Amino acid sequence: MPGARAALPDRAAAVRRVFLGLLVANVAVVAAKVVIGVRAGSLSVLGDAVHSSVDALNNIVFVALMRVAGAAPDEDHPYGHGKFEPVGALGILVFLSVTCFELLKSAITGLVRGVQPPHLTALELGFLGATLLVNVWVTWYEGRRGRQLDSELLVADAAHTRVDVLITVGVLAGAMLSRRGIRNVDAIIAILVTVLVARVGWDIVRGSLPSLVDQVAREPAAIRKAAEGVRGVDSAYAIRSRKAAGVVFAELTIGVTGSLTVDEAHAIADLVEDRLKSELRLDQVVVHIEPC
């Protein structure tokens, strides 16, 4: 059990290191955008710098959030603080909702008023292309580390960055197609991107809710089969499992022969715990003993 308790702080520290690395990258991107925007006198580039500064601010908030999520259990949170992580992941939906609203607003305005898409200079197009490459790398790296660390927050933030990729691709595609005389292309692309952003939001919800609502982490039948496979266990029942911040918890009751001594019954419970951890990749297991 001590190893399982130590796993959460180590994992939280690893997630924090990822966000700190992304913070450095985002600060460098903001600095580059400000320099280019000032020298070129481009308000759109400076506006993009403001957007990137929000990403950097998010990294700072998430570092602080993971410090809370990785804290050891205390009197008020006896099961730990791991659920703060999926709560933070759902918080990203606020930013995605604002993005969807702004995209739909610009799309409707473009369709109704026939607004012409902005003319981007070669410098701005090249700059957007460079930003796209950076965001593609961030999305890949953050998503990969999120899956390795089983972090809902990293995966959700990677999805948020993927939205930036979609928007940049949409802007580049709209700029190129509008030069070919295609009407309303900016509005059409904005609507398509809005649909994709909504899908990303749904994926975040689907990935974060199971741990928040204590969805079953391992099938009860699999836990029962593994437990009853231990010599001395007559039955296994009252099985529960859940997952929070990458840690899988399970609780069950085993029936043993009533003539066993306390030490013998506890030895069987220890065998059940070890088997469940090794076969079903459970981190913390609580085994109750009942005579039968």
Molecular structure report:
By secondary structure, the protein is mainly alpha-helical. It has eight helices and three strands, in the order αααααααββαβ. The protein has helices spanning 2-40, 43-69, 84-113, 122-149, 152-178, 185-212, 220-228, 262-280; strands spanning 235-244, 247-256, 284-291. Strands 1-2-3 form a three-stranded mixed β-sheet. A hairpin with a 2-residue loop joins strand 1 (235-244) and strand 2. Helix 1 runs antiparallel to helix 2 (43-69). It is elongated. The model is unreliable at 1-6 (pLDDT under 50).
Task: Spell out the blueprint of helices and strands.
Layout: H1 2-40, H2 43-69, H3 84-113, H4 122-149, H5 152-178, H6 185-212, H7 220-228, E1 235-244, E2 247-256, H8 262-280, E3 284-291
Parallel strand pairs: 2-3
Antiparallel strand pairs: 1-2
Helix pairs in contact: 1-2, 1-4, 3-5, 3-6, 4-5, 5-6, 7-8
What is the compact description of this entry?
The protein is mostly helical and 292 residues long. The chain is built from 8 helices and 3 strands, in the order H-H-H-H-H-H-H-E-E-H-E.
What count of helical segments does DSSP give?
8
Task: Characterize the overall form.
Answer: elongated
Determine the structural class based on helices, strands and strand pairing. Answer: mainly alpha
Instruction: Give me the strand/helix succession.
Output: HHHHHHHEEHE
Which bin fits the share of residues in helices?
A: over 70%
